[in-house]
What we know:
By secondary structure, this protein is an all-alpha fold. The protein has three helices and no strands. Helix 1 packs across helix 2 (29-51), helix 1 crosses helix 3 and helix 2 crosses helix 3 (63-90). It is globular.
Amino acid sequence: MNFIIWLIVGGLVGWVASIVMRTNGQQGLLLNVVVGIVGAFVAGIVLTPLLGIATINQNNFSLPGLLVSLVGAIILLAVVSLFSRRGYRRR
């Protein structure tokens, strides 16, 4: 049951991050879930040591955990956007 909640919350976090980064029209449901979960993983590596707040990947479904996961997903989308724009300029 926890796995299903993790997927749903990851999808919501990825969806909100895609709205913030204005990539919502380019992403589907599956990519939102992936962005939310991988973004929480990024937050676990980068932000958890700094802030001491666990992410949704560490079974922390509290508001601070969701916010840290959201920031990680936004960071992930920003990095992907940066590299994808750079690739288009080289052509």
